[in-house]
Amino acid sequence: MKQEIAVIGLGKFGFYFAKTLAELGFPVIGIDSRQARVQLAKDSLTKVYRADANTVEALEQLGLRGISYVLVSVGNSIAASSMISMYLKELDVEQVWVKAVSPEHQRLLYKLGVDTVIIPEQLAAVQLASKVAIPGFLQYAAFDPELCFQELVVDKWAGKDLRQLNLPHKKNVMVISIRRKDDDQGSVIPNAEYILQKGDKLVVMRKTNDNKEIEA
């Protein structure tokens, strides 16, 4: 059974985050102090509560002690998101994710022990710029923003296997999957003896700040 996730604040970002996870099969608890938002979310999420989450007692009564994941998305209130985040860590929440409104807010949240801080507008802008700077850019690695995924199409590497290419050492990239040029359905997890063919599509993981073009 997938782990339960709570979302505090069902504005645009919080609601779509919660709704997407619910559609992916996760049990999601939604929490907001506004009745209109609770009403909108009740048919999409597993449980929805109208509550003020600004006290540790309220968070505990909502059953959040020891839960694995909580996203805090409470609008532009730096004070509210900071206090809620601190209380969640006191309640032994394993992973606290918070939407921030500025880099200063982000630094404050990390000092409070928050695990992941998101500035949606900044993230969207950086990802769009990365699509220009890194041909084949796919997305950042969720567990580490310093890593990203890129798609490469094989040309010069055709006829060689991954052991010969030694890409982690020579190019500082790791091949995650390979899709044959004539296969639109499946990808494979490659081994070192996998011989590449011209037109194969590789998904590689690389450092975000390394924008050197790789000719595959």
Question: What can you tell me about this protein's structure?
Answer:
It is a single chain. This protein has 216 residues and is α/β, with parallel strands linked by helices. The protein folds into two domains: 5-118, 3-Layer(aba) Sandwich (Rossmann fold), CATH 3.40.50; 125-207, 2-Layer Sandwich (Alpha-Beta Plaits). 32% of the residues lie in helices and 25% in strands. The protein is built from eight helices and ten strands. The strands form two sheets. Strands 3-2-1-4-5-6 form a six-stranded parallel beta sheet, sandwiched between helices. The chain has a four-stranded antiparallel beta sheet with strand order 7-8-10-9. α5 (103-111) links the parallel β5 and β6. The model has no long low-confidence stretch (mean pLDDT 87).
Which descriptors would you attach to this protein?
six-stranded parallel β-sheet; four-stranded antiparallel β-sheet; Rossmann fold; 216 residues; alpha/beta
The helix-and-strand class reads alpha/beta
* Mean pLDDT score: 87
Major sheet: arrangement of strands: 3-2-1-4-5-6
- The fold-level CATH name of the largest domain is Rossmann fold
* CATH class identity of the largest domain: Alpha Beta
| Major β-sheet annotation | 6 strands, parallel
Q: What is the percent of helical residues?
A: 25-40%
Number of strands: 10
Structural shape: elongated
CATH architecture of the largest domain: 3-Layer(aba) Sandwich
Annotated CATH homologous superfamily of the largest domain: NAD(P)-binding Rossmann-like Domain
What percentage of the residues does DSSP assign to strands (E)?
A: 25-35%
Number of helices: 8
Which blocks of ≥5 consecutive residues have pLDDT under 50?
A: none
Oligomer: single chain
Radius of gyration: 21 Å
